[in-house]
Amino acid sequence: MHASANGDEIIGLDHVVKIYRKPGADVEVHALRGVTLTIRRGEYVAVVGASGSGKSTLMNIIGCLDRPTAGVYCLYGQDVSQLDDDALSAVRGKRIGFIFQSFNLIAQQTVLENLETPGFYQSVPPRVRRERALSLAERLGLSDRLAHRPMELSGGQQQRVAIARSLMNDPVVLLADEPTGNLDSNTGQIILDLIDELNAGGMTIVIVTHDKSVAARCRRVVELVDGLVASDRR
After folding, report:
1. What is the pTM of this model?
2. Is the pLDDT of residue 204 over 60?
3. What is the C-alpha separation between 10 and 42, in angstroms, rounded?
4. 115: closest CA among 87, 88, 95, 145?
């Protein structure tokens, strides 16, 4: 079990600003205008808002895919706001699991190889990687699909592989970006049930969604409007 430097705080953003400069133009886009937000261990949070509200930018900063222009972001007690790309990548690999709308699986690899990839990048010994991958595959009902490649799987199976892969390095937070966006409603419900189960088991989960029914499953809903937190409902 992980232990945080700030009690149960996993994610802490303090007046986070993100400004993008459009290449070749003198235009600045203020994607986040001073977001302050705390997410604690075991929370189940939906981030909602219209297109252009800053949802994706917030997700990228929380996920250590980008860094703030100003303000402070602490992940699990560590200030990661100003880390360089390599350090940010290392934190991301150890602390964060991602589930994307487009699955982001490696087409040339089998399910088993896809599952083992995060462990490979974190220098987990091969035997340990294999044991973890097999255990997660069994947990997510994929044991009979280990030799298949992504294109040989249904959308729901691909998303289950993506979820299993996101859990390989025992992350402290799971970030899901429109995780049911490419799935039919029945398959989407199965995936959401699975995410519910992970949260019930103690996993901290943040879902970015425009779908009200997905947000309604979460115990807390943070709404962004024009790069600011407009409401925070529990």
Report:
1. 0.90
2. yes
3. 9
4. 145
Whether 75 contacts 21, CB under 8 Å: no
Length of the chain (residues): 234
Instruction: pLDDT band for 1, please (50, 70, 90 cuts).
Output: very low
Q: How far is it, in rounded angstroms, from Cα 34 to Cα 229? A: 9
- Quick one: which of 65, 79, 51, 66 has its CA closest to 19? 66
User: Degrees (nearest 5) of the Cα angle 186, 189, 197?
Assistant: 150
Q: What is the mean pLDDT of residues 97-112?
A: 92
Q: Which residue bears the tokens 């699955």? A: 103
What sign for the dihedral angle of Cα 107, 90, 163, 141?
A: positive
pLDDT confidence band for 3 (50 / 70 / 90): very low
All domains of the chain in start order, with CATH = 9-233 (3.40.50.300)
- Give every CB contact of residue 204 below 8 A, 6+ residues apart in sequence: 10, 11, 39, 40, 41, 42, 43, 44, 172, 173, 174
